[in-house]
Amino acid sequence: MGMMKGAAALPLNAILDGDCVERMNALPANSIDLIFADPPYNLQLRGDLHRPDNSKVDAVDDAWDQFDSLKIYDAFTRDWLAAARRLLKPNGAIWVIGSYHNVFRLGAELQNQGFWILNDVVWRKSNPMPNFRGKRFTNAHETLIWASKGEGAKYTFNYEALKALNEGIQMRSDWMIPLCTGHERLKDEAGDKAHPTQKPMALLHRVLLGTTNPGDVVLDPFFGTGTTGAVAKMLGREFIGIEREESYRRIAEKRLAKVRKFDRSALEVTTSRRAEPRVAFGVLVERGMLRPGEQLVSARGATAKVRADGTLVGHDVKGSIHQVGAAIEGAPSCNGWTYWHFMRDGQPVPIDVLRQQIRAEMREG
Amino acid sequence: MGMMKGAAALPLNAILDGDCVERMNALPANSIDLIFADPPYNLQLRGDLHRPDNSKVDAVDDAWDQFDSLKIYDAFTRDWLAAARRLLKPNGAIWVIGSYHNVFRLGAELQNQGFWILNDVVWRKSNPMPNFRGKRFTNAHETLIWASKGEGAKYTFNYEALKALNEGIQMRSDWMIPLCTGHERLKDEAGDKAHPTQKPMALLHRVLLGTTNPGDVVLDPFFGTGTTGAVAKMLGREFIGIEREESYRRIAEKRLAKVRKFDRSALEVTTSRRAEPRVAFGVLVERGMLRPGEQLVSARGATAKVRADGTLVGHDVKGSIHQVGAAIEGAPSCNGWTYWHFMRDGQPVPIDVLRQQIRAEMREG
DNA sequence: GGGCTCAGTGAATCGCAGT
DNA sequence: AACTGCGATTCACTGAGCC
């Protein structure tokens, strides 16, 4: 991209100051694995708005003021999202978080720029602030949007790890997590909360564990007091933070210095079979675990015979273990490893057991 | 409002056919108390989807949900929202419902037109369809947006009624309600579902009870099989439905003829009775109550290490707290919550103590 | 009738490595 | 870049049928 050598080096595990759009534009394109962004929505722009002709606002519909501040907010959103998009690797992803004040602008602009929404996720607060005046529903949630760089783009999703985190049931799009309070809530010198919207680490834990791998680079353009960086460090991910307020940067630096990374073994996470090395069925025959001519059976009584090249012959079909299984069942597809069984001591045993033996040997060897 | 007599007569408790924008424009301005709209979501489904058992998912592939581009969808949204806005009384309100495919377009356009968002509300589904391929989070919710006609406009909110409905606690912005299934789900002559996206009456019950008064006029421009009308009639509100598809209108007419005012029998069946889900061990890790890498011990001296995804690693075993406990004891099952202890001040403490802390938080929240 | 099993289903943007 | 073929993947609930 016409970038000088050296400029391509990412400032890992650092907090950059200044404007996030300028800072992002100075970093190399296609270099970031994940962006987590908690943009401000209360821009306090209203007082700065001036109508070009100084005319009076029509009192019938108070929407003018709102409309212009929306336009400014949209321009702000467009700029930082475009800068973020440029930084993302083709297989990277982005998370944004917002409330009903701004999340519809965020989601619409993500789609406008070609991001592909994967899920919207609801952070349900177990301890929200009540609605004191009793005029609305208790505002008990915020919304996160998770998006890949475009339709068809790959992305990281640690399905099994999240399923394990949720007691063996696949993780839903609504997450119950308490507000950041107590010892986790950072205080300034006066003992007041250091940042008005500090996010709980539990939220970032789930985001980073689920959608990044150890060693990935995570960028947060609205770093605040550094929750994204703290959790990234604990989980063995690299981070880059951008924050324009000096006081937040100072608190974040202090906080991050104290964070310890978890043991490497603790960061190893439950993986799916998809990540395991592939084993060809023919290898079982080659190694003598199954004999050519041996009969395999399905749970429902179908049979097929093993051939020397690792294909099967059923009644009127031949092909791979998967093809023959699918043909017999009249199904669009079939996992032959779990469908077919061989007989040992009069009992049917899934051939997947033999694959697992080979995989165990591969790990040791 | 300079309206001719006669033109002002609303077609109450009727289903109008044809295009909803034309129909709305033919009704008198400032005449409707509440609009509930469930517009097409513009799902962009590519191929077929099969369950792991190879059965095919019955997708929403109806022509009425197809739009050629986001731009065309936005124009559609702009048109019907403008027509809806014209109809609303100054103190009226609107509800729209959508999923991540379209709700950001809806919310942004509501704001563009000057509507004032009062809350976004999450319909949490107690029984959503799982994510069969394990590629994303289970899409377990939809989003409703509740908005008044503009900043400062009055609106109806029956705070105490909703509080009573919620066992004396302020109603939150996240509602757990099951899908519309069983006898409530309308069937066509062939016995198939009459409408692909019929909403549960419990959802409309909460909306109409909370944000209208008896005698109010409720308009639904995407009436479908008439859930809005049915609940309005039960609750003593007037309704106007607009529906393009003749088959849906016919079914709705039949359904509405059977509905009795204040007949709540169906609602009581469909209100969710499921308790809060169990606490996952992984949540203790996420929340920092236990640290990845930390060692747990059993009363008989066995040890295991906590991983970041809420699984344990023992000597030669990994899995859930229950699985690892059972493997170590050689038992068929094991209650990990009482089996495992963490060390505090040199003393072993059962991890169940931490679970009880989280349950207490959830009860309070 | 009660209790059990089994089959069915719900707004879904649902591969990927190797060649 | 397009093509080929392996082979991974589900939760809560309802209702019918059977004993």
SSE map:
2 copies of one chain form a homodimer.
Chain A: E1 14-16, H1 20-25, E2 32-37, H2 63-87, E3 88-98, H3 103-112, E4 116-125, E5 141-148, H4 159-165, E6 174-177, H5 201-211, E7 217-220, H6 227-234, E8 238-242, H7 246-258, H8 264-267, H9 281-286, E9 295-298, E10 303-306, E11 312-313, E12 318-319, H10 321-329, H11 336-339, E13 340-344, E14 347-350, H12 352-364
Parallel strand pairs in A: 1-8, 2-3, 2-7, 4-6, 7-8
Antiparallel strand pairs in A: 3-5, 4-5, 9-10, 9-13, 10-11, 11-12, 13-14
Chain B binds a DNA duplex (19 and 19 nucleotides) through residues 40-47, 49-53, 55, 57-60, 65, 98-101, 125-136, 138-139, 142, 178-183, 185, 193, 196-197, 274.
Keywords, please?
32% helix; DNA-binding; homodimer; alpha/beta; disordered N terminus; Rossmann fold; eight-stranded mixed sheet; 365 residues; 2 domains
Q: How widely separated are the two ends of chain A?
A: 43 Å
**Which two chains touch over the largest interface?**
A-B, 84 and 75 residues
Q: Which structural class fits the helix and strand makeup of chain A?
A: alpha/beta
CATH hierarchy, class of the largest domain in chain A: Alpha Beta
Going across the biggest sheet of chain A, name each strand in turn: 1-8-7-2-3-5-4-6
Strand content of chain A: 15-25%
Mean pLDDT of chain A: 92
Residue share in helices of chain A?
A: 25-40%
The CATH H-level superfamily of the largest domain in chain A is: Vaccinia Virus protein VP39
Main β-sheet of chain A, in a few words? 8 strands, mixed
